[in-house]
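[Help] Beginner question about ligand-bound structures

Sorry if this is basic. My supervisor gave me a protein sequence and a SMILES string for pyridoxal-5'-phosphate and asked me to "get the holo structure". I don't really know what that means in practice or what format the answer should be in. Inputs are pasted below exactly as I got them.
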Amino acid sequence: MSGWAYPRIALPLGAGELAAVLWRLLTGPRADPSGAVGRFEATFAGHYRRRGAVAFCKARMAFYHVLRALDLPAGAEVVMSPLHVADYVNIIRLAGFKPVLVDLQPDGFCLDLDDLRRKTGPATGAILVTHLSGYAHDMDAIAALAAEKGAVLLEDCSQAFSASFGGRPLGSFGCAAIYSLSLLKSICTLTGGVVVSDDDRLLERLRAVQRELAPPLRGPLIAEAVKNLVIKLALLRPLFSLVVLPLLRLTATRGDRLSQFQKANKTVDLRERLPPQFLTAFSWQQALLGLGQWRSFAARESARIAAAQALYAAIPDSEEIRCPSLTPGGGNTWWLFPLLVRQPARVKAELARRGVDSAQMLLSCIPDEPAFADLGLDRCPNAKRLHERTLFVPMYHGLAPEDIRRIGEAVAACSGQSGRDASR
Ligand SMILES: *Cc1c(COP(=O)(O)O)cnc(C)c1O
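Answer (accepted):
No worries, everyone starts somewhere. Holo just means with the ligand present. The predicted complex, written as structure tokens, is below.
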């Protein structure tokens, strides 16, 4: 393939934004000089036309505080996806509840509705629906089921900032929605998480919790900003093509070094208590970064969604490679671009040879985490297969139609087909 290779990801934060946040973290005052956190929260709530938003240091802590504020009976079951940031299992347990895993569809990232129905009942306190890679669930069916079972409905929209179902934005179907603001998320503030809700009592409780948090820690934020800069440098296309991708190919048998560097949670533990740094506040420096991200949000989202739709149309279904199934009525936005691949290691190597970098899934398959082996969590065979078979190919806002065409061709070549499947 002519030209430079395509890295697997592009970071949402620009070098200028990273320089500015580093400067503010290193030289700024500790206290919020301009009410930036409140303005950021108001912008977030305003974008989704919800009554309020509250920011925390991580999405998992936003989820923790929501669970604690809901008045669920002690020990109630909280249903979640088996492909997730593994720490959500700890969060549910430390909030005083019992995690229950519901399997995914055989060929898609949404919860299997039959398994969801089977595993919900009088003991269910809450259902957390996580829209992976912007793949929208059938939220009418899930909201009806939650109402029937008397369970609180929550959404994790960390990978679905702009997605919808039946024309209605995801995040508006449940009592609250959670958005992570970590690396690669559509609004990135280094780390962070936001709860959005229309429930004034819930919002008031979350604000009361927020006021009691310890001051933000600057050290980890500075480290995260530096990590963003290092990844940004490694992804510069000439350097990536001539040095980084060849090195990744040479060391591929020992695992994917870039994924290992990117991954925020390198080990999974069964936690007995919350680490103290999880009980620190979201900082004004992050809020200013977030306000800047909202200014570029619409342009970045629409460019990415157009690229995803073009790539989806360019990839023929084959025995070897297919795209996850779409929910009828779902307004998919993608986030990363997942393929389901029968032999992911072979296809990853062949794509790399063609100058197209790719990545396997960084989320955990929770039933396979040794740290959780004694919790009696359900095996989820579909999720396990999806986890093994997912390969993310490059698709992001900076790519031109010509780039998307080349990436689609490389994928098609790996599946032994060259044209578009006439049935799609
Ligand atoms: C990125 C991501 C998170 C991250 O959570 P943090 O606690 O902010 O690190 C959570 N959920 C999903 C679905 C994510 O993609």
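A couple of things worth pointing out: The CA atoms of residues 139 and 363 lie 23 Å apart. The pocket of pyridoxal-5'-phosphate is lined by residues 58-60, 85, 130, 156, 158-159, 180, 182, 185, 193, 264 (CB under 6 Å). Feel free to follow up in the thread.
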